[in-house]
Specification:
The protein is α+β, with helices and mostly antiparallel strands. Helices cover about 25% and strands about 20% of the residues. It has a domain at about 525-695. It contains 14 helices and 20 strands.
C-alpha cells in the first residue's frame, strides 16, 4: 500500500511544478535586468578613438635605435649567442660517418625463417707451434707496486745521435692481443692495475679522451690551422711538456712464442649463417686465451693451467717500442696477437707465419752458417754418422736403428715425423698453410678500448695469424701449449635470438686447440756435444762442447766451445766479445761459462770397420754422460745437439749481432725467411732444446 505523504507530494508536483519553475526563471530575469540598468554606460567619444589610432600608428612607424634595443634585451637577461660564428665553425668540422651509425643495422625481413638469429659456431686455432727464445727487451722500469719510474730529469738526445723512428704500441692493444689490450684479459679478464698504478677502466678512459683530443686537433688542421689555438687548452695540451718521461731499461727475458693459424673464412661463413646477415656479419675477436701444461720429473704431463697473465702484462703493458711487423694488418687480428718488444739483445725467431708474409718482405738468404762446421756438409756428416754408427758402448743412443727411430718418431714427439712437430713444421712446408716464419718482428686487446660494436678489426682473408708470448717459462722446463679464441657475443641483449641460444653473456669462448709441440726452455748455462777429439797416448778422449751462456740481467747470450774429458767440469770464466745495439761496436767482457756439470764418460769418434769390410772405418757422433749439480745424470749426444734448432739459432744470431754491432739496431728479426727452413728441419729432427736425456 502506497505512503499517503508520497502520494500527496506526487500530486503537488504534477499540478504545480511547471508553474514554480516559470516563476523562478522570471525572478532571475528581473534581477539581471535591474542590475544591467544600474551599470554605467561606456563613456567614449569618436575623438578619443581617433587619438588612440594616431598614437598606435606613430609607435609602429617610429624608428628606434638598435643600441637601445640591445640594451633593453641585455637588461632583460638576453645574450648574444654568436649563431653566425657557430654556424661557420660547424661547417669546418669533419663529420665521421661511423659516429652516426645506428646501433642496429636496417635489415629487410627474409621470407620463411625471418631474422631469428643463432650463436655462431666458433672454431679452434690450428697448427699451434711453440718455440723458446731469450733476449734483452726495452721496457719501462717499474717500482715494487708496478708503477712506472720517472727519469730524475728530462734528458735530451745528443745532437750527433741520429733519431730513430719509434714504433710505439697502439692504445687499443689488446691487444692486444694479445688481449684486452689483448693480453689485457688473457685468462681472467678482470680489472687490473696497469701503467702508473691505474686501473684498466681508467686507462681506457684516458685513451678515449686522448683520441678525442687528437680528433679535435685533426679537425683544426683540416680547417686550415696547423696548430691548435693558444686559448684552446685542451688541444694545446697535446703539445705541452708533461715533465720527465718514464725511465727505460733493458730487461733480460725468457719467452715462448706460440703461433697458430685461424680459418677466418670458416668463421665468416659461420657468422653469416648464424646471424642471417651475409653482408656485414664479422667476428669481433676479443682476446686469446692461453693454457700450458708442464712435464714432470717422471715424464708425465701435469694439468692444464692458465698462463700467468699479470706477469706477462707487466711486460706487454710497458713497452716504449715494439718491433717490426712483417705480416699485413688484414691477416693479423690485433686482439689475437701480442706485440713484440723491441730487443736490445737477442733476435726474434719463429714469431711469424711464412705463408702470410708478403713476398716483398721475405728475405731469401743462403742457409749456410759461417764457421764451426754448421753448414750443409756438417749436417750431412752428422746424418751419415747417425745412420751408420754401431752403437754406444755404454748403452747410449748411438746405434743406427735408434738414430733412425729418433728421426722418424723421436722421443717425446721430437722426431722428424712424430707428433706435433710434424704438424707445426712439416705441415707448413708441404701445404703452405702452417709454415712458420723464423725470426721476425712485430709492431699488437679486449673489448675495452673499442668505442662501439662497429669499430673492430675486420678482414676477408681466408687464413689469419694468432700469436701469444709467454714470459713466465722457467729454465730447464718443458711445456705444451693450447689456445682458444674469445669473441664478443653478437647476440648480447638482443631479443631476436632463437630460444636456447645465449644472449646474456658478453663474450663467447671457442674450443681449445690441439696441444702444441713439446717446447723446452734451455738452462741459462747449457752444454751441447759437438764432436770428439781422439785420445792421445797420455790423455783420455775429449768431447768438444758448445756452452751457451744467457745473462738474465741484460738478455745477452754468448756461445763458446770447450773441451772436456771424463772427470772434468765443462766450461770456465772467459773473456768474450759481447754484441751491442747502440752502434758503438762489440765489447770484450768476462763471462762465466762454468756449467757445474762433470763429464762421467764419453764415447764416439772413429770406429774401425768390422772384419771383412773394406775401408778404414766410420765416424760416430760424440756421446757424453754428464753429472749435473743437482745429482741428475744426463746424456748429451752430437746426433741431437748438432742439429738442435735452438742452439743453431743462438749461434747464428750471435755472429750476426757481432757483425752488426757497429750500427744502431732497427729491428729484432732473426735469421729471416731463408734461414727458417733449415732451422725448422733442425727443430723437427732434434728440437729438444738444451735438455739432456735422463738416464
Amino acid at each position: 500500500m502506497a505512503n499517503p505523504k508520497v502520494e500527496k507530494l506526487k500530486d503537488f508536483g504534477l499540478r504545480y511544478g511547471d508553474k514554480i519553475a516559470v516563476a523562478l526563471a522570471s525572478v532571475v530575469f528581473v534581477l539581471c535586468l535591474g542590475m544591467a540598468f544600474k551599470r554605467p554606460t561606456i563613456d567614449i567619444k569618436p575623438e578619443q578613438i581617433k587619438k588612440y589610432a594616431e598614437q598606435s600608428e606613430s609607435n609602429i612607424s617610429r624608428r628606434q635605435d638598435p643600441e637601445e634595443i640591445l640594451k633593453i634585451l641585455v637588461d632583460q637577461g638576453l645574450k648574444n649567442s654568436n649563431f653566425a660564428k657557430e654556424a661557420e665553425e660547424s661547417a669546418k668540422i669533419l663529420l665521421v660517418a661511423d659516429d652516426f651509425r645506428a646501433a642496429r643495422e636496417w635489415v629487410t625481413p627474409e621470407p620463411g625463417a625471418g631474422l631469428i638469429r643463432d650463436n655462431p659456431k666458433l672454431i679452434a686455432p690450428a697448427n699451434v707451434y711453440a718455440y723458446p727464445g731469450r733476449g734483452g727487451a726495452l721496457v719501462f722500469a717499474l717500482d715494487s707496486e708496478g708503477n712506472r719510474i720517472l727519469e730524475a730529469e728530462k734528458k735530451e738526445a745528443p745532437k750527433s745521435e741520429p733519431a730513430r723512428r719509434r714504433r710505439r704500441r697502439g692504445a687499443a692493444g689488446g691487444g692486444g692481443s694479445m688481449m684486452g689490450g689483448m693480453m689485457g684479459g688473457m685468462m681472467g679478464g678482470a680489472a687490473r692495475k696497469g701503467s702508473g698504478g691505474k686501473s684498466q677502466a681508467e686507462l681506457e678512459k684516458e685513451a678515449k679522451e686522448d683520441e678525442a683530443r687528437r680528433r679535435k686537433l685533426m679537425q683544426a688542421r683540416l680547417s686550415g690551422k696547423d696548430e691548435p689555438a693558444a686559448k684552446d687548452e685542451e688541444a694545446a695540451g697535446l703539445l705541452a711538456d708533461k715533465g720527465p718521461p718514464p725511465k727505460e731499461i733493458t730487461k733480460g727475458l725468457r719467452w715462448v712464442a706460440v703461433t697458430a693459424t685461424l680459418d677466418h673464412a670458416q668463421m665468416l661463413a659461420n657468422y653469416r649463417d648464424a646471424l642471417k646477415n651475409p653482408s656485414t656479419a664479422q667476428p669481433y675477436y676479443s682476446r686469446l686465451d692461453v693454457q700450458r701444461q708442464e712435464q714432470q720429473s717422471d715424464g708425465a704431463w701435469g694439468e692444464w693451467e692458465d698462463v700467468a697473465s699479470k706477469r706477462n702484462l707487466d711486460i706487454l703493458d710497458n713497452l716504449p717500442e715494439v718491433d717490426e711487423e712483417l705480416t699485413p694488418d688484414d691477416v693479423r687480428p690485433k686482439n689475437l696477437n701480442d706485440p713484440l718488444p723491441f730487443l736490445k739483445a737477442g733476435l726474434w725467431e719463429k714469431v711469424h707465419i711464412a705463408s702470410l708474409v708478403p713476398k716483398e718482405k721475405k728475405e731469401v738468404a743462403p742457409a749456410t752458417i759461417p764457421g764451426g762446421g754448421e753448414g750443409m756438409m756438417g749436417m750431412m756428416g752428422s746424418m751419415g754418422s747417425m745412420m751408420q754408427g754401431p752403437g754406444s758402448a755404454g748403452g747410449g743412443p748411438g746405434g743406427s736403428a735408434e738414430m733412425m727411430s729418433r728421426m722418424m718418431g723421436g722421443r717425446g714427439g721430437r722426431g722428424m715425423m712424430g707428433g706435433s712437430s710434424m704438424m707445426g713444421g712439416m705441415g707448413g712446408m708441404m701445404d703452405g698453410e702452417a709454415g712458420f716464419m723464423g725470426g721476425m718482428g712485430m709492431g699488437g686487446g679486449g673489448v675495452a678500448g673499442v668505442d662501439s660494436l662497429t669499430d673492430f678489426w675486420k678482414s676477408e682473408e681466408k687464413k689469419v695469424m694468432v700469436r701469444a708470448l709467454d714470459f713466465t717459462a722457467e729454465p730447464d722446463a718443458t711445456y705444451h701449449y693450447r689456445l682458444r679464441i674469445v669473441v664478443v657475443n653478437p647476440n648480447y641483449k638482443r631479443d631476436d635470438v632463437t630460444p636456447g641460444h645465449d644472449n646474456k653473456s658478453k663474450e663467447l669462448t671457442g674450443p681449445w686447440s690441439e696441444p702444441s709441440n713439446e717446447v723446452h726452455m734451455p738452462s741459462d748455462v747449457s752444454a751441447y756435444a759437438m764432436g770428439v777429439l781422439p785420445a792421445g797416448a797420455k790423455s783420455d778422449m775429449k768431447v768438444v762442447f758448445q756452452v751457451i751462456r744467457f745473462n738474465p740481467e741484460d738478455g745477452v747470450t754468448v756461445p763458446q766451445n770447450f773441451e772436456a774429458s771424463p772427470g772434468e767440469i765443462i766450461g770456465e770464466p772467459l773473456r768474450r766479445d759481447v754484441p751491442v745495439s747502440d752502434g758503438t761496436g762489440k765489447k770484450l767482457k768476462l763471462i762465466d761459462f762454468n756449467t757445474r756439470q762433470i763429464v762421467l764418460d764419453v764415447d764416439g769418434g772413429w770406429q774401425p770397420m768390422p772384419t771383412g769390410f773394406a775401408g778404414g772405418g766410420l765416424p760416430r757422433p760424440a756421446t757424453a754422460l754428464l753429472l749435473r749439480a743437482d745429482g741428475a745424470v744426463i746424456v748429451r749426444d752430437e746426433a741431437d745437439d748438432r742439429l738442435d734448432a735452438v742452439r743453431k739459432d743462438i749461434d747464428t744470431n750471435y755472429k750476426r749481432e757481432l757483425k752488426e754491432s757497429n750500427k744502431e739496431r732497427e729491428n729484432g728479426m732473426g735469421s729471416g725467411y731463408g734461414g727458417m727452413m733449415g732451422s725448422m728441419m733442425g727443430g723437427m729432427m732434434g728440437g729438444g732444446g738444451a735438455r739432456g736425456r735422463g738416464r
